[in-house]
Amino acid sequence: QVQLVESGGGLVQPGGSLRLACAASGSIRSINAMRWYRQAPGAKRELVAVINGSGPTAYVHYEDFVRGRFTISRAYAENTAYLQMNNLGPEDTAVYLCNADVLVNGAIQQSRYWGQGTQVTVSS
Q1: CB atoms within 10 A of CB 32
Q2: pLDDT over 90 percentage in the chain
Q3: pLDDT in tens, 64-80
Q4: Does residue 16 contact residue 122 with C-beta atoms inside 8 Å?
Q5: Could you tell me whether strands 111-114 and 46-52 are parallel, antiparallel, or unpaired per DSSP bridges?
C-alpha cells in the first residue's frame, strides 16, 4: 500500500511564505510524476504544479496563477515533493493536495495516489 502525507500548511499573513511537503511511503518501486493541487472553499480542485522525472532534466509545469511565486521540487530518493510558496495572498487560501504516479513493488503499471491535503490560510 502507498500513502501520501502533506505537511507544512498553516496560517500566514499576506506576502508571507510557506513550504509544503508531500511524503510518499509504502511499497514503492519508483515514482514518476508528482503534482500539487489545491481546492478553495466553493471552488473546483485545480492543478498548481507538476514535476515529472528526476534530476536536472525533470519536467516542471506551473499553472498561470502561480506567476513566479511558487517553486515545485522533489527529493527523488526520498519520495518527497515540495512546494515553496512565496508572496501568498488571500486568494491562495485552500486545501493543498499532493498526488503521485507510483509504481508499486511487484506491479507492472503505475497507479495514482492522493494525499488528504494540508490547509493553507492567508489572512491578516
Answers
A1: 14
A2: 94
A3: 999 899 999 999 999 99
A4: yes
A5: unpaired
